[in-house]
Write a structure and sequence with these properties.
The complex is a heterodimer of chains A (about 450) and B (about 190). Chain A is α/β, with parallel strands linked by helices and about 450 residues long. Chain A is built from 14 helices and 19 strands. In chain A, helix 2 crosses helix 5 and helix 6 runs parallel beside helix 8. Classes of the chains: A alpha/beta (about 450), B alpha/beta (about 190).
Chain lengths: ~450, ~190
């Protein structure tokens, strides 16, 4: 045996959970209605039980209506209703706690985990959803899995997994005025590409990360998958502990093992350094999150057939200033940007003004708790007075599985994570932005540089 | 899972990079609660564009970063249901690749020139045991995780394999498992 190498955060969590080579124990399994029905069916066919219902938590989020429908059986869309009711039956049968439609805790799976305090430093967390990386903001190893793996974790509480490579993205300098976590991660993906972190777990570090709120850190880790990364993580610190303090499942005293970080000399398989101070508010122009430019820029000349196709789909001319792109819809929501901090930031941009004529704008809080908190603070009134539609919790127009979809050809400013073709509705054209940029765009009817506004 | 040793036959080609799972199977089909019947919806929107052609063959040659985006295993189910048993590409997105191997689709990484050669040849034989792709006029070796290979070749059920470690899992839960959180106590 040689001398012990200094360990990364990934090494430490991995070692604490490896049962046998390539077999990882999972501390928390989050479940939702879309990627679980076939997994539960597999358990039934195999005569298997759920090994650890007490390490499993379910919610209905992907296809629930956001119109305030109070119960699963009242969902008008037949297939959606069937899927949510099936989740209810499966959770009852296998003893899994569930926040279904009507629960005060129902919401997007990646919002409710942290919110209830079940997401904690040092854990291994999986969910049948690629944005599970969100939970890495708490110093957990969290990643998305497919339905076969959902069945596997339900049955065994373990996951077969080869250890991913490690990558550190270190930000130098601090974020400028009007520049958010969303802009930082969009700029990062723009730089490294949609497969830039493939095969890697990314640890985000640097002063710009230290200075972020937990909401901002969740936004960063959430979009790791859009850069191809298996998981994103940030070392837990006082911000993390303070955020978890008092949450339902959080312990009353901070356990020593929560103080986890990569050792100073730890070696990463890859390192990327990015100047945070140079980042501007960002707007995507194409059909991958890496097709992104600063709001001050113009739509670029296509450099590949893929980019040509994207420009055609987006109906954009190269050379058009981003701030001249007019919008039909604005969506503030999704597991990327629907937390209370996101809604507060968006509301601050409204300042008594009205949504531009011809623009339909909606706010979909990430959870019913976020909604209730926003209403206690009067944010709902601010949004409604400005002309926003104030909705109930769910994934909504991030992926358009529920009735919240854009029409063909409509152009959307969206705080979500994917601008893929047809993602928000067949033929819909999505531009990814921060909540602040989305709110300002709703008022102006086109993108604006929020740093130049006379607020 | 069906055992998989050799996939041979005609090749379909999808010459696009960064094809995401939203394109492979759009969201409106994720409301189904069955595991079968997704093939008819494969590339639902693209299939309605003029000039689209994707024959139902055992082998698909795709572009870089195939299967990126959403973790939906429905994408792998749809490709399998359509007839694909092996997918050859310069690279795959991580979750999609894993989903493929869990259901018995073989993802094969070859470099771009080799992918082009297979596409042009129009037919190929993917030999998992020998870790080689052969096509008229060429051949190339490919790498695969030995455990994944073993499972695919024997059509083994992951859950049963893992449960054979029951003693180790129980010991972990007894000695090393972290204290919380307990979701059932919420």
């Amino acid at each position: 045996m040689g001398a012990a190498h200094p360990k990364t955060l990934l090494d430490k969590i991995w070692e604490a959970h490896e049962i046998a080579p390539g077999l990882l124990y999972i501390d928390l399994h989050l479940v939702h209605e879309v990627t679980s029905p076939q997994a539960f069916e597999e358990l039934r066919l195999g005569g298997r039980r759920v090994r650890r219902p007490d390490r499993t938590l379910a919610t209905a989020d992907h296809n629930v209506p956001t119109d305030g429908t109070p119960l699963a059986k009242r969902i008008r869309d037949e297939l959606s209703r069937e899927q949510v009711e099936m989740l209810e039956r499966n959770c009852r049968e296998f003893g899994i706690p569930l926040y279904s439609l009507g629960s005060e805790h129902q919401g997007i799976v990646h919002v409710i985990g942290p919110e209830r305090g079940v997401t904690q430093p040092g854990m291994t967390i999986v969910c049948g959803d690629s944005h599970t990386a969100t939970h890495g903001a708490f110093g957990a190893l969290a990643f998305g899995v497919g339905t076969s793996e959902v069945a596997h974790v339900l049955a065994t509480q373990c996951l077969v997994q080869t250890k991913p490579r490690s990558m550190r993205i270190r930000y130098e300098g601090e974020l400028g005025f009007g520049v958010t976590a969303k802009d930082l991660i969009l700029a990062t993906i723009g730089k490294m590409g949609v497969a830039g972190a493939a095969g890697h777990v990314v640890e985000y570090a640097g002063r710009a990360i230290d200075a972020l709120s937990m909401e901002g850190r969740m936004t960063i880790c959430n979009m790791t998958i859009e850069g191809g990364g298996r998981a994103g993580m940030i070392a837990p610190d006082e911000t993390t502990f303070a955020w978890l303090d008092g949450r339902a499942a959080a312990p009353s005293v901070i356990p020593e093992e929560w103080s986890l970080r990569s050792e100073p000399d730890a070696r990463f398989d890859r390192e990327l350094v990015i100047d945070a101070h140079a980042v501007s508010p960002m707007v995507t122009w194409g059909t991958t999150p890496a097709m992104v430019v600063p709001v001050t820029a113009s739509v670029p000349q296509p450099k590949s057939s893929q980019e040509e196709r994207a420009l055609t789909y987006m109906d954009l001319e190269p050379g058009t200033p981003v701030q001249e792109i007019a919008l039909d819809r604005v969506f503030i929501g999704s597991c990327t940007n629907s937390r209370i901090g996101d809604l507060r930031a968006a509301a601050r941009m409204l300042d008594g003004r009205r949504v531009a004529d011809g623009v339909y704008a909606m706010v979909v809080p990430g959870s019913q708790s976020v909604k209730a908190q926003a209403e206690r603070e009067g944010l709902d009134e601010i949004f409604k007075r400005a002309g926003f539609d104030w909705r109930s919790a769910g994934c909504s127009m991030c992926l358009g599985m529920n009735p919240d979809v854009a029409s063909p050809g409509e152009r959307v400013a969206s705080t979500s994570n994917r601008n893929f073709e047809g993602r928000q509705g067949r033929g819909a054209r999505s531009h990814l932005v921060s909540p602040e940029m989305a709110a300002a765009a709703a008022i102006a009817g086109h993108f604006v540089d929020i740093r130049q506004r006379d607020t | 899972m069906k055992a998989l040793k050799i996939v041979a036959g005609r090749v379909s080609v999808l010459d696009r990079d960064d094809v995401d799972t939203d394109q492979i199977i759009p969201k409106q089909f994720l409301k189904r609660i069955e595991r079968t019947g997704f093939g008819q919806f494969l590339f639902f929107d693209w299939a309605r564009e003029p000039g689209w052609e994707l024959a139902q063959n055992p082998i698909l040659v795709a572009g870089r970063n195939f299967g990126c985006g959403s973790s939906r295993e429905h994408a792998a189910w749809a490709l399998q249901d359509y007839g694909f048993e092996a997918i050859i590409a310069p690279s795959f997105a991580d979750i999609f690749r894993s989903n493929c191997t869990k259901i018995g689709i073989l993802p094969v990484v070859l470099d771009e020139a080799q992918c082009r050669a297979v596409a042009q040849a129009g037919e190929a034989e993917v030999d998992l045991d020998g870790q080689v792709v052969r096509w008229p006029g060429g051949a190339a070796r490919f790498e695969i995780d030995p455990d994944v290979k073993h499972r695919l070749i024997h059509g083994l059920d992951d859950i049963a394999l893992t449960l054979s470690h029951e003693d180790a899992i129980a010991a972990y839960e007894r000695d090393r498992e972290r204290r919380g959180p307990v979701t059932t106590a919420l």
